[in-house]
Amino acid sequence: MTDRAARVPRGTCRIFGAIKAGGTIQNCLILVHGPRGCVYHINYILGLRGDHHIPVYSTSLDEHDVIFGAEEKLREAIEELDTLKSPEIILVLSCCASSIIGEDINGAIARAHARSVVIGIDAGGFAGDYTTGYAETLRRVVETCSRPVPGTIPRSVNLLGVLRSGPDLREVRRLLSLAGISVISALPAGASLETMRKMGAAALNVVICETSGLEAARYLEERFGTPYLVTDFPIGPDESRAWLQGVARAMSIKFAVPADSFPALPPVRVRERRIAIFSGPTRAVAVARFLSGLGVSPRLIVLDFPPPDPAKVAAAAGPSCEVLVSPDWDEIVERVQELGIDLLIGGMMESPLAARFGIPLLDIMHGSQRSAGAQGAGLLLSFLQEGPGKKS
Q1: How far apart are CA 389 and CA 381, in angstroms?
Q2: Predicted TM-score (pTM) of this structure
Q3: 10 Å Cβ neighbour count for 64?
């Protein structure tokens, strides 16, 4: 579809990515220096899409603040949150309004008296999109929180670009433990100031999501000399085994995989389905590979943002699959209808689409939903065996 003046965009702005990343760090508060409307709508969206409430605070800029400036108001807000909430980390984000009027958020941070680690991030929405916000937030947090360490901890890794905690993160940790590999910090999901202080001690940084985690990995390599490995998300026993072997190989670890560690999926016959996947590139590649291995390759993949490696997405999708990158709503509706899609794999944003066409939807985009490893593959498999018209 050609560019149009009026669109219903699927992607959002830089500040959303910064908030989404920072909101999963332990004991971290987010303060947006901007009008209350920006924060209200982001709080509302995160409440719908997430498994837990991420409170986002605002300096609630008004007309007077926009004309005369409000850096003193920001300083007071930082000190107030520090005193009343006692967080370990406060992320201070600019937005479109404060960026346009040139508010010096780092100057306000320098003048504030706070026990918390306060990190300023330029999140004005006109420069980059939410993937920029993800990546910059992870890098800035790593830059600020990591510390020099006396040595490397053998068989230890950091996981970078892990945007969801819950069962998938537990499964990744379990897989690594099979090779005697421990996790120092998983960033941002569940990371704490204590674990981030120790990130420089890792023997390897494992990038789970290249778009969000690669900049942080490059910084850690530059500062501490830690090598990094960009990996694919492991779904299914074969992919999980290959993922673990790849990490172990990068660390020069030789180990014997226990025979029962990667139980094969039960033999089943999955009838032909017309499947659409809605996600970021990392998870889309993993799900598409798993489906193709079952003989039910997807017909449509809708990516939230451009993939770092389009060839990898194309290879996982297969020749009969159409790939859309950041399409608007009208284009999505058109392709779902014309391709006769009868099953959706995505998240809450696809609920209206599922309701409109009466298509089953499997939500794999929230932290409480399991998709990694053999058990995650079992969930996908059981969903594939449901008949059209059933709701998950």
Answers
A1: 17
A2: 0.92
A3: 9
